[in-house]
Amino acid sequence: MNESNDFTLSRYKQYLDTIKKDWDIILFNEINSFDLKDRPKALIRHDIDLSLQQSLEIAKLEKELGVKTTYFIHLQNEFYNVLEDNSQQIVRNIISLGHDIGVHFDINSYSNKIKKNEDIDFWAIFEKNIYEQLFDCKINTLSLHNPTLIKIKFNQMEDSIGGMLNTYGKVIFDKFKYISDSNGYWRFEKMDDFLKKNKNENIQFLSHPGWWTHQNFKPRQKIQSYVSDRAKKTLKNYDSILKKSGRKNIQ
Fold it and tell me: What dihedral angle (degrees, nearest 10) is formed by the CA atoms of 28, 29, 33, 37?
């Protein structure tokens, strides 16, 4: 594994500056609008596993740099609840900055409901409809959550799931070299080496915004911080409800 000290917002900005110089950054729904044999293209996607707030920080940074990317929302998430008012507002802010959103689909969440492949499409569309109605937008893309841990047998490289482009689909992986910051470490190789090695190739960069912070912490420290912040917020909301209802909080 590679060291985690790459994962700061200032470092992320440096990577974006490098990518902008040698690649055209496009959205997934723009793939068919370009000749991929011309100047190399870069797909940048964010699977939001840990922090919506940190995703907004990155979305603002990308806006400043004139970059549009895709943010994939996880419906069954232990770190945030996208149905909460504050969470919904964060997603709306990300969209307002010009970015796309997509479905971060956890097939294992529906394992007891899936008997055939058509059931996978059903639940993918189920989540798509929730986001489209909540945020008044069109969802075209899906990314799989923890694809190496999926229990159900199906072709993870299907180009389409529930009518949405699968970021792990063969059509993407055949045309774009892939790098990820999974678990707060560079997967396979460091970004600097990856960019030098694939300078003339189309690339797909998967980030998890929770790893990219202002200060340099170890991955475990970042996880503990998000857990603590969510607990504090829950207690604060609870106390606020008690105060508004005129009840005393039992210590």
Answer: 20
CATH classification of the domain holding 126: 3.20.20.370
> 3-class DSSP state for residue 108?
helix
Instruction: Specify the pTM.
Output: 0.93
**Does residue 249 belong to any structural domain of this protein?**
no
Q: What is the C-alpha to C-alpha distance for residues 189 and 200, in angstroms, rounded to an integer? A: 17
Task: Examine residue 37 and state whether it is found in any structural domain, yes or no.
Answer: yes
Q: Give dist(CA 143, CA 127) in Å, integer.
A: 12
Supply the angle between the helices 85-96 and 117-135 in degrees, to the nearest 10.
Answer: 80
The number of distinct structural domains making up the chain is 1
Is 137 among the domain residues?
A: yes
Full residue range of the structural domain in which residue 48 is found: 4-216
Cβ atoms of 107 and 144 closer than 8 Å: yes
How many angstroms separate the CA atoms of 98 and 26, rounded?
12
Q: Give residue-wise pLDDT tens across range 182-236.
A: 999 998 899 999 999 999 999 999 999 999 999 888 999 999 999 998 899 888 8
